[in-house]
Automatic annotation (TrEMBL):
Name of the protein: VAMP5 protein
Sequence ranges of Pro residues compositional bias: 122-131
Protein species of origin: Horornis vulcanius
UniProt keywords, alphabetically: Coiled coil, Membrane, Transmembrane, Transmembrane helix
Membrane spanning stretches: 79-103
Length: 131
């Protein structure tokens, strides 16, 4: 028989038994292979489920990092504006102090002393007392 090469022409019964045994071994191997394939399929489904969970977690992480980045950016911008405001206030106070200091040191009217010639009284005649 071409399907069972182990059949001995002298004893067809022994060859048939051997062929059946080999067929059962092959069938058992096939059953084991099917079980392994089903186990692998289960593992693949678990991996797909894990991959889906990781994808969702990574999306949440991405959104969270973007939100934190925006928050930090606003916070830095706020501190920059506070620093700018304080600098402008300092410059305004410094400018006012400078203006006040200049106003005190140089009054609006100019006074000068004029030397009087010799022999002329230093006080005007209207203010002099009669002797």
């Amino acid at each position: 028989s071409p399907h069972c090469p182990h059949i001995v022409p002298s004893c067809p019964q022994a060859g048939l038994v051997r062929c059946q045994r080999e067929a059962e071994e092959v069938a058992e191997l096939m059953r084991q292979n099917v079980v392994r394939v089903l186990e692998r399929e289960g593992h693949l489904e678990q991996l797909q489920s894990r991959a889906q969970d990781l994808r969702q977690v990574s999306e949440v992480f991405t959104r969270t990092t973007q939100m934190v980045t925006r928050h930090q950016s606003r916070r830095h911008r706020r501190w920059h504006l506070v620093a700018l405001g304080l600098s402008l206030l300092f410059l305004l106070i410094l400018g006012l102090a400078l203006v006040l200091a200049l106003a005190r040191s140089s009054p609006g009217t100019v006074t000068s002393t004029v030397p009087t010639p010799q022999g002329v009284p230093s006080t005007p005649p209207e203010l002099q007392r009669p002797p």
